[in-house]
Amino acid sequence: MKDKKNFEEYYVMYANKIYSVAYRMLNNHNDAMDIVQETFLRAYKNWNNFKGLSMFSTYLYRIAVNLSYDFLRKKNKMKKVENLDYENILPYSNKTNFEDCVHYDDLLEEIKKEVDNLAEKQKIVFILKTYEELTYEEIAHILKSRVGTVKATYFQSLLKIRENLKKKGVIKNEM
Amino acid sequence: MKCKNIEKNILDFIEGKGKETERIKEHLEKCEKCRKLYNDFLLILNNSTKIDVPHYDENYWGEKFKYIQEKPLFRIKLKPVFTGISLVLIFFSTFLFIRIYTSNFKKSASTSSEKIELLSHNLPFGEEEIFQYVDYIKEEEAEKILDVIFKGL
What we know:
A: mainly alpha, Arc Repressor Mutant, subunit A, 0% strand, B: mainly alpha, elongated
């Protein structure tokens, strides 16, 4: 029997996971919290239609991903208006060797930046796979995509991060 | 095994999955380019997992759950309602303006010269030009033409 108490158990079980995905997508506690609450509010409305736990978690991830997408799009629109003449100058352009110039904390910071700079789809696939440790099948289900596509997107996201870290000199270029 | 196949299988290899583990290992020992790709991917993935996000315990989420219970389940979205109302108002005010303006316009001109004068304010040519053309035709015909124009307005 599905009741309010049952839903609360699921909320407590999944809220942190949804928060983690939203936080990594948006990089902001309050925004991530809004996404969590809105996600569960929508799930609560459809609570009686769920048949199993696996379907419920997929549904939660799907709502959270879509809400985060919407939020990012709105935010990016505003950013474009604010930064019309903004020029991005890379701080590591002359550096070529990771050991010589980038400390451990810097490496984490640079990776974080590059994850943030990924295209929406690449970013969410990277987050769900790397941090949430979901399988390709689960991610494909959440994103309503094919397993092969998800796998290729994940590979591309890693290549892109690697490429940008190379450009910044955070990781070594090939010999 | 070729480099292209390594790219295809490297993610499964990193996860410790896949069938051709031994052949991939052999290739990585020989091929510097693929070994670099493998090492870079490992570096990115191992360090990515160290990037933390705030973690909250069950008590915190239990408190937050109250917010869900307090919120009304069905909210009327006001944005589309306001947009709809605004559009209807704009449509009716435009319609009313056109109706009032054209009826006043028609009422205020009874003779042909008045009509010509009024028309000259609303057409891209002047009163003199209108008179020039109207002079070629009889006054009765001109009257009829002007009536047709006014009905169309």
